[in-house]
Amino acid sequence: MLEYMDLDRSVPVWPQVADELRRRLDAGRYKPGERFPAVNELASELDVAPSTVQKAVAALRKEGRLYTVLGQGSFVKGDE
């Protein structure tokens, strides 16, 4: 499902992408333990550079909302 964001490109884009991904997590679009979409997939879907999505995903990891398994990708952290 393609969803285009209305981005304000006069300010840094990655925080806007992080906000959109937080909204999706809060809405339950991605369930705890579920594999989070790949960076390239999200970049294509949101029409932004992969590096922009990488920064947003890094922010969500730092917040404890995602975790990464080397060689497997990022996953949604549960409320354990």
UniProtKB/TrEMBL annotation:
Domain HTH gntR-type: 11-79
Transcription is among the record's keywords: yes
Keyword Transcription attributed: yes
Keywords recorded for this protein, A-Z: DNA-binding, Transcription, Transcription regulation
The organism's place on the tree of life at top rank: Bacteria
Pfam family, one: GntR
Gene3D superfamilies given in the database record: Winged helix-like DNA-binding domain superfamily/Winged helix DNA-binding domain (1.10.10.10)
Name of the featured protein: HTH gntR-type domain-containing protein
Originating species: Streptomyces thermogriseus
